[in-house]
Amino acid sequence: MGHNFAKLRELSETRGLDLLIVHALDNIEYFTGVRTIGDAALLLTYSRRDDVARLYVPLLEYHRYRDALPGFIEVYAVSKFVKPSGIPVVSMDWKEIVVKASEGFEKIGVDVSQGGPLQLTIYKALGERAVDVSQDIWKARMIKSEEEVLAIKEAVEVTTKGIQAVVAELREGVTEAFLAGVFEHATRRRGAEGAAFEPIVAFKPNNAYPHTLPGNRVLSKNDLVLVDVGVKVRGRCSDITRMVIWGRPSEDEKRAIEAVVEAANTAIDAVKPGVKASEVYEVAAKVLEKYGLREKFIHGLGHGIGILVHEPPYLRAGSEHVLEPGMVFTIEPGVYEPGKYGVRVEEDVLVTKSGVEVLSRGLNLVIEAT
Questions:
Q1: What confidence score (pLDDT) does residue 1 get?
Q2: What pLDDT digit, counting tens, does each position of 195-206 carry?
């Protein structure tokens, strides 16, 4: 995935900032195009006055970033004690780096409201000079480039193959954990950089928890299998949920499945530029209300996907996000009966100039395995 440095420069000019300081790891990944690993401290600065960008990284990360980045981004290694020759080493702590980088600047944009190892350090070093540009960055990130959309489509395709591999391994006695491993193996073989999140393969009644983890529960007669999975390809995520029917579902389960599928499809039909995210949520909620299941829908309808698997826009009650072409997000209504079963389906969709494109349409929302 290429860098988005031009958007950093554009943000600085639009907001009239003397200096930009970026510390959130996912923002640094977005602007540099280099995948962040772990939770190491990183700092990206851009001076509009000098038109100079500098990236400060731990010593062990220096060559990885230097080899990947264009020459106009200066890369410095931060190390107080080890100073190899041929590497520009900064022998200061992170607060000192922020203080020095901000000398002579008054209007300094910072993604200060986003989490990261240096969040408090930057806040203490800059005080009232800090102008929070977190929402400006999110606004830029919400509109995906063609390259990003292609990467998400690739991630969706790989995820679909992984779900099909899981379905092929279904048999009575198999465990949730084993099937999660099947998904990971199948997707790694097909080019996934890794999982976008911990894979969820859940049988009854474990699937009654919207967030759960696969364990040693075994597949039994007349079960429902919830598969909620995603991968990263070229730095961008997918997130897909499918219901797999194993045996004969009860009448209540059939009704829940029918309601959730109708809610998903109706909500997707409502997606178009200019519509509020909360309005799409309400469309799905009203379908579930028709079935008498609205109170069983206990989470938002969807979330953006990109570098992170959960990022703006969020489709939920009260959301003021207005949908725009280039946004990519999930549509995932669900119904949960504690102690019995849970039903959820999830599509990944792209807002287009004229409406919506379903990126994950290649696999039925409900799969009958037997």
A1: 67
A2: 999 999 999 999
Cα 139 from Cα 134, distance rounded (Å): 9
Q: Which two tokens stand for residue 107?
A: 């209007």
Quick one: pLDDT at residue 128?
Answer: 85
Global model pTM greater than 0.85: yes
| DSSP H/E element including 237 | strand 236-237
- All residue ranges of the chain with pLDDT < 70 are 1, 370
Buried b (16+ CB within 10 A) or exposed e, 325-345: ebbbbbbbbbbbbeeebbbbb
CA distances from 247 to 44, 224, 370 (A): 54, 8, 6
Q: Which residues of 72-109 are buried (b: 16+ CB within 10 A; e: fewer)?
A: ebebbbbbeeeeeeeeebbeeebeebbeebbeebeebb
Nearest to 163 by CA among 195, 129, 208, 207: 195
pLDDT reported for residue 231: 98
* Pair type for strands 347-351 and 200-202: unpaired
User: Given the structure tokens 């995603």, which residue do they identify?
Assistant: 230
In terms of C-beta density within 10 A (0-12 exposed, 13-18 middle, 19 or more buried), how is residue 132 classed?
Answer: middle
